[in-house]
From TrEMBL:
Residue ranges constituting the AB hydrolase-1 domain according to the UniProt record: 29-155
Name of the molecule in the record: Pimeloyl-ACP methyl ester carboxylesterase
Source taxonomy: Bacteria, Bacillati, Actinomycetota, Actinomycetes, Streptosporangiales
InterPro entries xrefs: AB_hydrolase_1 (IPR000073), AB_hydrolase_fold (IPR029058), AB_hydrolase_sf (IPR050266)
Region Disordered, residue ranges: 58-78
MF-aspect GO terms: catalytic activity
Length: 288
């Protein structure tokens, strides 16, 4: 595998940046590794384990290097899916294999529903599609409260609520918004509101991602193979429960991946998963 080469792609309202790690002589489809709002940097450790394949990573619109040039304030899964469609076209049209995590998994489900011919295998790891949960009303109300907290109090208090919701075991309580929260300082977060806004997760993706309901009829009819992955250490948490619910609606069983929601991460981001064993499981799933 060569060192990554960075390219740009102009799409409506944004200039996407993506990185190609070329593998010479391979007959395998391109492996596209995506998150949202996580950028390409989050997949560096995982990409190292696939040196026999051409690996592509990218920064979703609004994240890191992919600068927005206009358009709506929020980025919907359908909008991200159209970005991915154009990216795959730029890479030769596919079909590609896709490993997608978190919000990226939601966007990838939208991609397969809208452009099914472009994907051979999608591994959707813990899509936080709260809309499909049995406790959807409480979950979506909690997400809306996080967004209101961000608008009212800023990044630190909102991130605390985000951490509490995503780490909560079991159904989200109906009175989440009224529950006392830890201090942002306990998580190393700023307690004071500096007035800054524009966070890509809170402003552009949080509501649209969690409120999105996949088109299950289109997904079941698609030629693409769809595998839902869940984290071994995520039992009872919102993203794993949503992943399990998506798999059930697709008529499949989720595949258990090592570690947690960020199991493919190394220690670069301070919350290491188990990227070595995660890559083993991903390779096995892609080979089936």
């Amino acid at each position: 595998m060569t060192e990554p080469r960075t390219h740009t792609l102009e799409v409506p309202g944004c200039v996407l940046h993506y990185d190609v790690r070329e593998a010479e002589g391979t007959t395998e489809p391109i492996l596209l590794l995506i998150g949202s709002p996580m950028s390409a940097a989050g997949f560096t450790a995982l990409a190292r384990h696939f040196q026999d394949r051409t690996v592509v990573t990218y920064d979703p619109r609004g994240s890191d290097r992919s600068t927005r040039t206009g358009g709506a304030a929020e980025s919907t899964p359908e909008l991200h899916a159209d970005d991915l469609h154009r990216l795959i076209d730029a890479l030769g049209g596919g079909p590609v294999d896709v490993f997608a995590s978190s919000g990226g998994a939601v966007n990838a489900l939208a991609l397969v529903a809208r452009h099914p011919e472009q994907v051979r295998t999608l591994v959707a790891h813990e899509p936080p599609a709260a809309q499909v949960l049995p406790d959807r009303e409480q979950a979506l109300a909690a997400v809306a409260d996080i967004r209101r907290t961000y608008d009212r109090e800023g990044f630190g208090p909102a991130m605390v609520k985000f951490i509490v919701v995503t780490g909560h075991q079991g159904e989200i309580p109906a009175d989440f918004a009224d529950q006392p929260m830890p201090s942002p300082a306990e998580f190393g977060l700023p307690a004071e509101d500096d007035g800054a806004r524009g966070d890509v997760m809170f402003e552009q993706n949080l509501i649209t991602c969690t409120h999105y309901e996949p088109d299950f009829d289109a997904l079941r009819a698609a030629p693409a193979r769809i595998v839902v992955g869940v984290g071994a250490e995520s039992e009872g948490q919102l993203a794993r429960r949503a992943g399990e619910a998506v798999a059930e609606r697709l008529g499949t069983k989720p595949v258990l991946f090592p570690s947690n929601h960020g199991g493919f991460l190394d220690d670069t981001f301070g919350m290491p998963g188990d990227p070595d064993n995660f890559a083993v499981t991903l390779r096995q799933v892609l080979a089936e």
